[in-house]
Amino acid sequence: IIMVLLFVYDIFFVFITPLFTKDGISIMERVATGSSSEKQKFDAPQDYVEKEQIPLVIKVPYLQKCDILTVCAPQYGLIGFGDIVIPGLLTAYCGYFDTLAHPGETKWYYIISCVAYAVGLVITYGALIGMQIAQPALLYLVPCTLCAVLGTALKRGEIRPLWTGRAGVAAPRPFDEDIPSSSDN
Question: Does the annotation mark 83 as catalytic?
Answer without folding.
Answer: yes
